[in-house]
């Protein structure tokens, strides 16, 4: 900390410019990843996050220039931020609307069309899902939110789980399957595969833990047993929240608090 204090004291301008540049890169990455991969389940959530991240990256660039030329920003930056945010929200709406329409169209199949796995897998390959794992997961996310026919007949799920074996792909499929109690066997098979791996990230492990809790509740012998478990979990959650709040309100917090 003393090194950083020294750097900020001796080189305040350069330190500020470096921090602005780092923030610019981070929010630009968030905007690009949101536009490309549509990571959030809700369509308007993707629009909002992409718009605000893109706006913030542009504002960072403007502030960076103002710092270099040593010009006062006053309310100019705030007005520009609000104007850009509105413009980019409108632009994001049309961008995501077109992407959702395209993906929904790609994942549509009429009742009269052949529905065997070979035909549908060839369809997915013609879209390019066999070459790009991120694109396949994007189609999975949109398919869930739009309740696309090729998601509801589980062909997209089977295609991704057979084509890609990475932790990211399998955990994404497991997350979707956990929404549907009727697909317990398919989820359980993938769950068993993933839990044997030792290279799971923290995010993957957290997801597996949550899926395990869902499996436990669904395997309960009776509804009353499940209700008791839910009450206990709710009580523990409230207790945990109370402990965290009390910790931050404490004048002398310590690790022994918990």
Uncertain segments: none
Largest sheet: none
β-strand number: 0
Range of strand content: under 5%
Distance between the termini: 27 Å
Q: What's the structural blueprint in terms of helices and strands?
A:
Layout: H1 2-10, H2 12-37, H3 43-69, H4 76-106, H5 117-127, H6 133-146, H7 149-152, H8 155-163, H9 167-177, H10 184-195, H11 202-218, H12 223-249
Task: List its traits.
258 residues, mainly alpha, 12 helices
In words, what does this structure look like?
- The structure is a single chain.
- By secondary structure, the protein is an all-alpha fold.
- Helix content is 77%, strand content 0%.
- The chain is built from 12 helices and no strands.
- The protein has helices at residues 2-10, 12-37, 43-69, 76-106, 117-127, 133-146, 149-152, 155-163, 167-177, 184-195, 202-218, 223-249.
- Helix 2 (12-37) packs antiparallel against helix 3 (43-69), helix 6 runs parallel beside helix 9 (167-177) and helix 9 (167-177) packs antiparallel against helix 10 (184-195).
- The longest helix has 31 residues, at 76-106.
- The model has no long low-confidence stretch (mean pLDDT 86).
Give a brief description.
This protein is an all-alpha fold and 258 residues long. It is 77% helix and 0% strand.
């Amino acid at each position: 900390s003393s090194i950083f204090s020294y750097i900020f004291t001796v080189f305040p301008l350069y330190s500020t410019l470096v921090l602005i540049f780092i923030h610019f890169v981070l929010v630009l990455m968030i905007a690009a990843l949101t536009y490309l991969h549509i990571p959030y389940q809700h369509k308007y959530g993707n629009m909002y996050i992409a718009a605000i991240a893109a706006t913030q990256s542009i504002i960072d660039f403007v502030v960076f220039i103002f710092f270099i030329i040593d010009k006062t920003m006053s309310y100019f930056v705030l007005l520009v931020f609000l104007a850009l945010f509105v413009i980019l929200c409108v632009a994001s709406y049309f961008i995501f609307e077109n992407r959702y329409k395209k993906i929904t169209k790609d994942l549509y199949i009429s009742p009269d069309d052949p529905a065997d796995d070979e035909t549908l897998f060839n369809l997915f390959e013609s879209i390019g899902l066999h070459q790009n794992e991120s694109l396949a997961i994007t189609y999975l996310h949109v398919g869930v939110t739009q309740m696309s026919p090729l998601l509801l007949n589980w062909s997209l799920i089977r295609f991704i789980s057979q084509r890609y074996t990475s932790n990211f792909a399998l955990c994404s499929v497991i997350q979707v399957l956990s929404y549907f109690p009727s697909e317990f066997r398919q989820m359980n098979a993938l769950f068993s595969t993933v839990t044997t791996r030792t290279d799971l990230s923290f995010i993957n492990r957290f997801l597996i833990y949550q899926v395990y809790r869902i499996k436990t509740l669904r395997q309960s012998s009776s509804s009353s047993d499940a209700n008791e478990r839910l009450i206990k979990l709710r009580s523990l959650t409230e207790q945990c929240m109370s402990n965290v709040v009390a910790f931050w309100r404490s004048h002398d917090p310590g690790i022994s608090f918990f």
